[in-house]
Amino acid sequence: MPxxxxxxxxxxxxxxxxxxxxxxxxxxxxxxAWWITDSMGLLSDAMESLVNLASAVFALLMVTIASRPAxxxxxxxxxxxxxxxxxxxxxxxxxxxxxIIWAAxxxxxxxxxxxxxxxxxxxAVLSSALNGVLAWALLLSGRRHRSIALEGDARHLITDVWTxxxxxxxxxxxxxxxxxxxxxxxxxxxxxxxxxEGASLMWKSSQGLMDEALEPEIxxxxxxTLAEFQHHTIRFDHISSRRSGQRRFxxxxxxxxxxxxLGRAAALRASVEQALMSSVPGLRATIQLLPSDVEAHFDVxxxxx
Length: 305
Hints:
Blueprint: H1 3-8, H2 12-37, H3 40-66, H4 81-109, H5 117-145, H6 148-177, H7 182-209, H8 216-227, E1 235-244, E2 247-256, H9 262-279, E3 283-291
Parallel strand pairs: 2-3
Antiparallel strand pairs: 1-2
């Protein structure tokens, strides 16, 4: 489907505006599906689309803030703003899931017959298809731009697609069997599934805010690049890394002969930094120069007695 990669190439802010538009369309479709069928499963699907809309609006705000350049008050940039988007989306998912469970339990205690299931299911399938295409585009764009806000929105929409599939299957079973108690039971199953997704998003957001280390594959690429400069007179140690939204940071020490001039040492450091930033997109490398016979010692804070 060439249309999806083309959409994913849109700038993140424009793609999130598309996400807001799609969320509004799916809310209308799913709400209409619930209104004509009175299905709790379809109502739960519509409620999750409201979360999609709120999350897309908040993600657009955070991506806009994250794109701002560094300033005097934020010398390392505003990239962490995207983690707030992911955390907010996870929280909204949890709230929606609890609301779905409450409404479904009420319907389970007092079952109601469903009506016009054909039209309702058709509208649900159409809205799910829209979300599926958008989720694919957002996921491709999120990976390209290393944006947790786009990726979080994409994964939420993917969950929404699976949710809709479960709802359609459940409501279809109600139509075939006449077991109307299946409808609220499907809604509860949907809620439990999106609770898991919401918790996962909030955990991922918290890890980003706590300066989580770079991914193992990225660290392997850094080690590979450093190995190209390794020599019996040059070595690297005390390598530490962190992630901040789209940015990646690595700090390390480079040891070299004390007899080298400052100009020669600085030129080699510049070459290493450039090689690191070329091999890992979005990386900012900081290298401290030390003589070969000098070791840096970090004081370990001791617990007070």
